[in-house]
Amino acid sequence: MQSTMTCAEESRALNETLAGTFKPADTFFLIESNLPDYGGWSGSIVKAASRNGEFAPYLRHLGSAPRAKILFIRRPQGDGKNFYIALTNQDEPKIYHAELDDYGDLLALDIASLRDDGAPRIGRREMTEIDELFTVCTNGRHDPCCAAHGAPVYQELAGQAGAERVWQTTHIGGHRMAATLIAFPQGVVYGHVDPHDVESLLMNHRAGYILTHKYRGRGCYAGHALDEAAHLAAGAAEAVIREETRKYGLQDLRLLAVDDLGGGSQRVSFSVGGGGSCSAEVGTRLSAPRLSSCGDEPKPMPQHDVSILAAT
Predict the structure, then answer these.
(1) How far apart are CA 224 and CA 256, in angstroms?
(2) What is the pLDDT of residue 24?
(3) What is the DSSP string of 69-120?
(4) Can you state the angle between helices 144-161 and 198-207, rounded to 10 degrees?
(5) 253-262 and 68-74 as β-strands: parallel, antiparallel, unpaired?
(6) What is the pTM of this model?
(7) pLDDT tens sequence across 85-117
(8) Top-level class of domain 1-225
């Protein structure tokens, strides 16, 4: 029987576990554009723009960076060409900004400079480091839940964090977990966010803590080159270990390794701030069919079972 709930309503009603639902990405490119030449923010706009039209060569160039995720961003009545790069590694995450004269400037971005210690360069110009940024998915043309849940969260977050620090964004991934947002520079991804969560989320983020009950994962595992299964397992294990050890600080856990145990299981190991380590086994199986997006047929989705193995 077809569900009468939206995908977000069903996900919340099922109390779906959020941790381990954000796919691999640790370099984020954020491009300001309302995309009028593409009819606005349609469902698969980034994929469509990468295939043809003005943005195709720019997005292919940006997509050559390892584990890159490209998002279009906007604000109400905004018409600028702001561009951000977030490098969300474990040790020293950073986010950089530039105001583009023309989108063609993106072709001058030195992809190799992303691996340097200094700021990324667009031609001879270095980008400017900023302290924080938040993106909230409001892409209702991809899924109505993103607009219904995302727009109120965007408004609340812009009011509390400052409008200059908050952007609406195209699809982050995981419509059913709307509202979903990313907190930079660490690339912490949250889901099922409501306006009343914003104050706590913002205060904890600025203090260097993670809200584990809203946590989906983060793009901080650069250097490990994890595949999708390992990346999702790391996010799932991280949330459970943080809850068990009460280590909520961003720097309290550092990923050491993800080892494939076979049969859909992974062993995830973290070093723990203050000394010691902790590991967990993550088994991934498929759930009963559920809505991944409004209008789609229900389908099974990955579900993680986490067991802590050792703590020293």
Answers:
(1) 9
(2) 81
(3) EEEEEE-TT----EEEEEE--SSS-EEEEEE-SSGGGGGGB-GGGGGSSS--
(4) 60
(5) unpaired
(6) 0.93
(7) 999 987 889 999 999 999 999 999 999 888 877
(8) alpha beta
How far is the C-alpha of 167 from the C-alpha of 71, rounded, in Å?
11
Which residue is it, tokens 């899924």? 143
Alpha-carbon distance 110 to 121, whole Å? 6
Q: How far apart are CA 107 and CA 122, in angstroms?
A: 8
Q: Span 206-213, mean pLDDT? A: 94
Spatial distance between the Cα atoms of 254 and 89, rounded to a whole number of angstroms: 11
Q: Kindly state the tokens that stand for 269.
A: 């190991």
Q: Which residues of 23-58 are buried (b: 16+ CB within 10 A; e: fewer)?
A: bbbbbbbbbbbebeebeebeeebbebbbeeeebeeb
Cα–Cα distance list, 127 to 124, 140, 160, 202 (Å): 10, 31, 26, 25
Token output for 248: 């909520």
Q: Is the peptide bond before 185 cis (omega within 30 degrees of 0)?
A: yes
Per-residue pLDDT, 71: 92
Cβ atoms of residues 71 and 84 within 8 Å: no
Distance CA 199, CA 46 (A): 31
Question: Which pLDDT score is estimated for 3?
Answer: 56
Provide the residue ranges of all domains of the chain, joining segments of one domain with +: 1-225
Average pLDDT over residues 170-199: 93
Q: What confidence category does residue 193 fall into, taking pLDDT thresholds of 50, 70 and 90? A: very high
Q: Is the pLDDT reported for residue 78 higher than 60?
A: yes
**Kind and range of the H or E run holding 266:** strand 265-272
Nearest alpha carbon to residue 282 among 227, 236, 246: 236
Task: Please list, in sequence order, all residues whose beta carbon lies within 8 angstroms of the beta carbon of residue 92, skipping any fewer than 6 positions away.
Answer: none
